[in-house]
Amino acid sequence: MKIHEYQAKQLLREFGLPVPDGTVAETADAAKAAARSLGGTRWVVKAQVHAGGRGKAGGIRLVDSHDEVREVAERLLGTRLVTSQTGPEGKAVKHVYIEQACDVARECYLALLVDRSVGRVAFMASKAGGTDIEDAAARAPDKIVRATIDPVKGLEVAQAARLAADLGLDGALEADAVELLTGLYAAFTGTDASLIEINPLAVTTDGALRALDVKMSLDDNALFRHPELEALRDEDEVDPSELEAKRFELNYVRLDGNIGVMVNGAGLALATVDILKQHGGAPADFMDVRPVATRDQIATGFEMLLTNPKVKAILVNIYGGGILRCDTVAEGVAAACRDIGLGVPLVVRAAGTNMEMCRKILVGQGIAVTFAEDMAEAAAEAVAAVKREAA
Amino acid sequence: MAVLIDAETKVICQGLTGAQATYHMERAIAYGTDVVGGVVPGKGGRKHLGLPVFDTVAEAVKATGANASAVFVPPPTAADAMVEAIEAGVPLVVCVTERVPVLDMVRVKRTLEGTATRLIGPNSQGIITPGVCKIGVMPAHHDRPGRIGIASRSASLASEVVEQTTAVRLGQSTSIGIGGDPVYGMGFIDCLELFFADPDTAGVILVGEIGGTAEEEAAEFLKAEKPRKPVVAYIAGIYAPAERRMGHAGTVDVRGRGGAAEKMAALEAAGVRIAPSAAEVGATMRQALVH
User: Fold this and answer.
1) Residue B165 near chain A (CB below 8 Å)
2) What does the DSSP assignment read for A323-386?
């Protein structure tokens, strides 16, 4: 689960990390009031969306009067911010975050994540932070320092000191840096985070460390032990149909093609999208039915395909496994067809547990369906059906 | 012959009395798996599916001589269950639980270090040696005793590949679901080592997908190993929608690895044959064995 910058900073503040004072605002007036109560003479107004690249897209502005804070907030709120990470449709700005600006002497890069190849939490850090970190890392991968953490020992002081030195945060800054790294690791494990990225981690001209921007994601699978963090979820950040699907045990991602796809299992769903493309087709979605899905949940998923105006044909590819059976899928599909009608060609490939029953149910309900023996045939049929519809 | 499980495998099930466990262990027993008991804290002394239930793994192992455990424990306590089995010295632990918190798996993985236990999963469909033993949630329709070893991150694609290897009359020595989670037990390299050492495995199929760098690491291993058995791989997700990124860490972390095309290129450079689609994995192995 991704969270907003202002939420991440609030969490990090609770873990004692040096985060600039700031206030979130939903209106331009509130933004101005926030600047006034924060005090100072310069402020940063930051659009709150779940994406990076905000600075280059005009979503982060440095201003030096209360009225300017108001103006910038007014301009950002209610618009859609398009950055290199949002896609062309951009993301709606509902909140702005107002912070006191500080004078930056130097910027570092610091991230904490789970290093899959070793199965441990790891720091990734670089002396040179800022928005060009990806290019910098590609040009000089050795400039990126890694440190993996033994979960039994935690982050040891010596290890933290070494990392601080790698970041050039030695001498007078070392003690603060060690405290920051220790606090960050505590925040990561304490919230079951999957990513915390501080970029930049600034050294101010008066010699203090400041986490100027923070990106943070939490492990969805661990939210059961952090009910208070569940409140940080911003459902407006997720495509509404994807959100709807999630309530019905479906993993759904909307694509821009015209063949509706329903598959059980993420791997098989990826493979189905691939084989459709290889046959010249264009999938309208990626839909993975979880093994625990019920008949009604499958019906809801199938209705999502039927009601998508772009969909010109539907391909259902089910490998009935130990839990999800083909007949359950067939009943769900049949129920959706009964309720709102099947207006497009339907190709079904069913294999595995109760595949015969699946055929019987669909045929028995009088549904116009083409059965395919394997994935390749199913893909070819679906692509041919779209062509016939278009002709 | 096979790897990891055979006719000598005696299985206990942690969480035996749960609905999913009951359903799948009944099927495992019907398949011929030697299931010898269950472990459910607080329910020791009872019987379930005609099997003795114990409070702890250690007691179960002592009483039954079990050498494998199937973990069907819900996410909040799945890690504790795996740790208990590892600490009790069970040689093979298979965890099918989905949605285990990743930091819990970091702890489990640390516990595994220096032990002789092999962990499969979590979020694994399990492991099957056709006709002999099955531990997990996979369907048992199309598996046939044979010569191909399979290691798959995806459960649904493993079923697909099992069916195809049967259709081309090769069958399977053992099929292992390594699971789709970020942090997990046995990986592709562990499976390759076992299959290369198994005299009855003639070829190995790896089923990978986008994300992580397990396939790239397997490629590096194969490059050094120069195996005499053919290895075929299928990687799902060539046309997958790009994951919505936030920040730079993901990109910096994988540095030009992790995509399907990059995985295929790395494996191909290591002498692996790449199946052009998920429908052609069995056929690709058939060819690889002939040539």
Assistant:
1) no
2) SS-HHHHHHHHHHHHHHH---S-EEEEEEETTHHHHHHHHHHTT--EEE-SSHHHHHHHHHHHH
